[in-house]
């Protein structure tokens, strides 16, 4: 194992959370747009017989899908932002799952009974929302691939054995701190740590 003063851990490259967030966002967009072709725009929050397999659809539900898809595509362009999208899916669809259980009568106390059922939720929708919430949690906690950059003068020799296959962390040498370095390294030093990976 390499120990060095001044080593930096960076998240690099396209992360699994970004790919999964983008795929989920595209699926939401497709179902939202196709849903609008099936339900139209009339009776916006009412019941429609046009749905997908066992799942209900109405224009308001389709709008939620389109907005979720657009938000997911916007947030999939960064590792930290993709994880934020995962947390939003987890929280938002977790709340929809619980609200659907209240509407179905599984949970008897429904403080939102006067709101009705504007998304036309059914029992099948509840289980779908639970699955989407779980998928959001997976996106939020997927491990990132990291690379450790070690300054030349501060490191022991780096060998191929320094790659940790369990955590996905790779160790590589970089130019000395304060030295020439790559343009990316210099920009990262100016920017500092943060969500922009």
UniProtKB/TrEMBL annotation:
Q: From which organism does this entry originate?
A: Amycolatopsis saalfeldensis
Say if the entry is tagged with keyword Membrane.
yes
Question: What domain of life does the UniProt record list for this protein's source?
Answer: Bacteria
In Swiss-Prot or TrEMBL terms, this protein is called: DUF4383 domain-containing protein
Ranges annotated as biased composition (Polar residues): 161-172
- Metal-binding in keyword set: no
- Which residue windows does the record flag with biased composition (Basic and acidic residues)? 187-197
Kindly list the residue ranges recorded as spanning the membrane. 20-40, 60-77, 84-107, 127-144
Q: Name one Pfam family in it.
A: DUF4383
Q: Which UniProt keywords apply?
A: Membrane, Transmembrane, Transmembrane helix
Annotated region (Disordered), positions in chain: 152-197
